[in-house]
């Protein structure tokens, strides 16, 4: 397989490595990924994250294992195991299905497919970025949630890709970065990307976003997605639904930015999207290089969904690599391609 390098994933010298996103923003440490078990563990620990990047990482691992001589039966079993690692993120399933479609053609076909998936993601990120930047006003102040940039894709990102392109065009003046509890993907990862890109920004707690909207400090909200249902409902990092409700009340445009591979035409609506429940320890405390800290009573129960579902009626527009859609348009496009 040829050399493939992105911000958070690289394949060089027959070796797949992932940037450990747990260690950001202060430490950039690359981890080798040479087994299905390692990839599943990294996905579940969010050392690799972002629906597009998870799918590409899984595809590259399968191609690598094929080159190492794994049999078709072993590769099919590996794909089945990887599929279960992140049930909400439909990009993972789409990438694996693309790989499985050519698995009987041998290792070279799997390598070509994996390389194509990587290169397609780079190109589609650029298309989304350009489509989205056109929608923003001059001197735009944008609020975003979680992390949707080059740490989550092979390319420039989804929502952050739009932000970066608008900044490059001179249209963007400021970014409000939702901290994104409980794992702080905004405060840690999006802020890291904003600094790398030189984009003016401020981090705020998720619960402060409504104040900014009330005070007229937000011109648009851009978020990503892990799955878009056939009716336009979509799942994204928990806290997105709160933003959508507040945006609707304050009449702030609310856009979801995602590749077409995030669309699931077989999922009728948001109620049918499986939502991963995560460990209670993520809510009750924090773990890191500094050790473990618990701030909640050990006996308390916890509700910790990784994602929530935003209904289509709260969305201003869907920015995909195939174009920009309103509610009627996205439903029609999904039905036509489904």
From TrEMBL:
Q: Where is this site: Transition state stabilizer?
A: 146
Name of the protein:
Methylthioribose-1-phosphate isomerase
> What are the alphabetically sorted keywords of the record?
Amino-acid biosynthesis, Isomerase, Methionine biosynthesis
Family listed:
Belongs to the EIF-2B alpha/beta/delta subunits family. MtnA subfamily.
Record's PANTHER family?
METHYLTHIORIBOSE-1-PHOSPHATE ISOMERASE
Residues the record marks as active site: 226 (proton donor)
Which reaction(s) does the protein catalyse, per the Swiss-Prot or TrEMBL entry?
5-(methylsulfanyl)-alpha-D-ribose 1-phosphate = 5-(methylsulfanyl)-D-ribulose 1-phosphate
Gene Ontology terms, MF aspect: isomerase activity
Q: Which domain of life is it from?
A: Bacteria
Q: Which SUPFAM superfamilies match?
A: NagB/RpiA/CoA transferase-like
Q: What is its EC number?
A: 5.3.1.23
Species:
Marinobacterium sediminicola
Q: In which pathway does it act?
A: Amino-acid biosynthesis; L-methionine biosynthesis via salvage pathway; L-methionine from S-methyl-5-thio-alpha-D-ribose 1-phosphate: step 1/6
Sites where the protein binds substrate: 49-51, 86, 185, 236-237
So what does this one do?
Catalyzes the interconversion of methylthioribose-1-phosphate (MTR-1-P) into methylthioribulose-1-phosphate (MTRu-1-P).
């Amino acid at each position: 397989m040829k050399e493939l390098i992105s911000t958070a994933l690289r394949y060089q010298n027959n070796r797949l490595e992932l940037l450990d996103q747990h260690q950001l923003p202060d430490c950039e440490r690359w981890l080798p990924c040479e087994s299905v078990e390692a990839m599943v563990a990294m996905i579940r620990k969010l050392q690799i994250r972002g629906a597009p990047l998870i799918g590409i990482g899984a595809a590259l691992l399968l191609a690598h294992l094929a080159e190492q001589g794994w049999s078709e039966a072993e590769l099919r079993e590996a794909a089945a195991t990887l599929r279960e690692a992140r049930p909400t993120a439909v990009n993972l399933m789409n990438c694996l299905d693309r790989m499985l479609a050519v698995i009987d053609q041998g290792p070279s076909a799997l390598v070509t497919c994996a390389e194509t998936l990587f290169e397609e993601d780079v190109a589609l990120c650029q298309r989304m970025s350009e489509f989205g930047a056109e929608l923003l006003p001059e001197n735009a102040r944008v609020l975003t949630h979680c992390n949707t940039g080059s740490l989550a894709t092979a390319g420039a990102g989804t929502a952050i890709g739009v932000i970066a392109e608008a900044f490059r065009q001179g249209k963007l003046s400021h970014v409000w970065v939702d901290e994104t509890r409980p794992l702080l993907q905004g405060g840690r990862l999006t802020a890291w990307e904003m600094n790398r890109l030189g984009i003016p920004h401020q981090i705020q707690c998720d619960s402060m976003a409504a104040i900014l909207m009330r005070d007229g400090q937000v011109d648009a909200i851009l978020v990503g997605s892990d799955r878009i249902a056939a009716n336009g409902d979509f799942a994204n990092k928990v806290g997105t639904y709160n933003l959508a409700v507040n945006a609707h009340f304050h009449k702030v445009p609310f856009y979801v930015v995602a590749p077409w591979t995030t669309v699931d035409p077989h999922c009728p609506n948001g109620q049918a999207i499986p939502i991963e429940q995560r460990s209670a320890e993520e809510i009750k405390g924090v773990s890191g290089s500094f050790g473990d800290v618990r701030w909640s009573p050990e006996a308390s129960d916890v509700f910790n969904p990784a994602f929530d579902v935003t209904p289509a009626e709260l969305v201003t527009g869907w920015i995909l690599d195939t174009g920009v859609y309103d509610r009627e348009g996205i439903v029609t496009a999904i039905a036509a391609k489904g």
